[in-house]
Amino acid sequence: MKWLLLILALLSLPAGAEEPARLDLGGSALVATGRGWGGPKPLELRLSLTKAVPYRTYLVDGPPRLIVDLKGADLGLALPQDLFGADLSPAIRWGPYGRDWARVVVELPGPYRIDSAGQRARAALSQITVALAPVAAQDFAPRPSATAALRDLPEPADVPGPPPDEAFTVVLDPGHGGFDPGALAEGESEANLVLVFSLELRAALQARGVTVEMTRTDDSFVALERRMTTARQARADLFISLHADALPEGQAAGATIYVWNPAADARAADQLTLRHDRDDLLAGADLTGHDDALAGVLMDFARTDTQPRSESFARWLTSRMSLMGIGMHDRPVQRATYSVLKSPDIPSVLLELGFISDHDDRANLLNPQWRDRMVKAVSEAVVGWARDEAARAAMLRQ
């Protein structure tokens, strides 16, 4: 099981070893920040890391490239082609460089200058941002020796994606349904709006090779606990519950992502052991005949893996929505104790697509063009996160 492999890998670290900074690919991107007016566009490279590190940036020529060196960073689990906006660069590569360094090389579509470079550290993440502006060829000022700058950079590791016999499965959970229409506004129901979106998202994910199961495909009612059971029976790798709630006008607008609140673990374990059969608590583990205490301990143990993975997917999703221009709540990721987030062994999020009580959000949900953008943001987040998960699992197996 993934969570057991993770624990074993952590236990194998040497005592006192300092964990390197790792790239959070879901929060990283190469984006165009303006128009090129017939030439290269202004660019911004954003590298999100699990902690702040010393770094240096400079340009080299032959062809023009941006070099970013990171001290104490390990980028081995991430694939350059999965960086959001990688298609803005002719080529991107990265790998270890010398002792305790990692190097990122971004080939540029023309001559540029570094307008600014900075690092902003937050509680659990740090982001390095490098702003690049196109310049005339005579104004390009790279380091004089590109050969010296690129010396000793190995080829990036070829980390395979999931093999064909290990299909990635997502369970989509359109909220409400049947006699429970959810929120209502201007003749529209939450249950119908999220079902339409879920069916469109299912088609987009299936086109990308993802296996998709749904808790409902029509206007029928499915009990909350049954939704989790459906996900476990499908051996889901990810569970996404979709909603479009209502609040008094002016109180909330924009997409919001909810993840489980770990402070409620004990209460959730008690509720699960009461409401579910023992063979329906953890995928791959039959707890029939075991007491509540043991079941609770095993569920807590499983959550040490699934909780950070849920939060990682939430970061992938907020990044993609932001880069696609999707309006989000002031606090786009929040913690909650919704029943559909309780599963201890399946990474789970609840996505509020918007608030049906807000005029603009409701208009978005009824707009096929907006839904197309949102579907693309969610499906890209799912596929990117799945590849990242596969890479991490491959490293744990080594």
UniProtKB/TrEMBL annotation:
The protein's enzyme class: hydrolase
Gene Ontology biological process terms in this record: peptidoglycan catabolic process
This protein's record includes keyword Signal: yes
Residue ranges occupied by any MurNAc-LAA domain in the UniProt entry: 228-383
SUPFAM superfamilies the UniProt entry points to: Zn-dependent exopeptidases (SSF53187)
Keywords for the protein's UniProt record, in alphabetical order: Hydrolase, Signal
Gene Ontology CC terms, in alphabetical order: outer membrane-bounded periplasmic space
Superkingdom classification of source: Bacteria
Reactions mediated catalytically: Hydrolyzes the link between N-acetylmuramoyl residues and L-amino acid residues in certain cell-wall glycopeptides
Gene3D superfamilies membership: 2.60.40.3500, Zn-dependent exopeptidases
Signal peptide positions (record): 1-17
One of the record's GO molecular function terms: N-acetylmuramoyl-L-alanine amidase activity
E.C. number: 3.5.1.28
Protein name: N-acetylmuramoyl-L-alanine amidase
Chain's gene name: amiA
